[in-house]
Amino acid sequence: TLVGGVMGMNQTQTRKLMAFSSIAHMGWLITALSLNPKLATMTFMIYITMTTTMFLILTPMMTKTIPDLGLTLPWHPLLTLTTMLSLLSLGGLPPLSGFMPKWIILNELVSNDLMPLATLLALASLPSLYFYTRMTYTSTLTSPPNTSTTKLKWRFKPHLAKSLTFLTPLTVMLLPLTPTLSYTM
């Protein structure tokens, strides 16, 4: 978790950031696997949902770097909101879907008297939260320069995947369903 977070802090390319994000989430997944295989399965399913949503957003936008997010997304307000919520969910902020697996894993660690490991995991996730917040800030709160007098936009409107409409609500609102998921597994 710490390796993926620290390595991702200095990156500006979105593909590399998502790769380091996967490394960071693997730390949580391996910890969950050592505690409870059902918890690891639930964590993996939620992570796959969040990551697939981000890839479905980033791929058609053709964004290669973080500054590209600030140039592309202002033309798509709904996609900007979706990107913000998906990134914050990947960071594990409550009340979004990415928070609950981390909370359950930390709870399991504390109940098994593994407080140092729980503290280490919680602190090791802060660098990842930093680069997710940086991506969120760039994509939502910065606006592109508007110096062109032409009416033609230099970016084409992307063709978004239809599955994005199904995965986006799951990325954002899976938190209330987590107790149901954990009992059925």
TrEMBL record:
Alphabetized UniProt keyword annotations: Electron transport, Membrane, Mitochondrion, Mitochondrion inner membrane, NAD, Respiratory chain, Translocase, Transmembrane, Transmembrane helix, Transport, Ubiquinone
Subcellular location(s) per record: Mitochondrion inner membrane
Function: Core subunit of the mitochondrial membrane respiratory chain NADH dehydrogenase (Complex I) which catalyzes electron transfer from NADH through the respiratory chain, using ubiquinone as an electron acceptor. Essential for the catalytic activity and assembly of complex I.
Catalytic class of the enzyme: translocase
Lineage start: Eukaryota, Metazoa, Chordata, Craniata, Vertebrata
Entry's Gene Ontology cellular component terms: mitochondrial inner membrane
Protein name: NADH-ubiquinone oxidoreductase chain 2
Family per record: Belongs to the complex I subunit 2 family.
TM ranges: 17-35, 41-61, 73-94, 114-132, 160-178
PANTHER family cross-referenced by the UniProt entry: NADH-UBIQUINONE OXIDOREDUCTASE CHAIN 2
Known catalytic reactions: a ubiquinone + NADH + 5 H(+)(in) = a ubiquinol + NAD(+) + 4 H(+)(out)
Keyword Repressor included in the entry's annotation: no
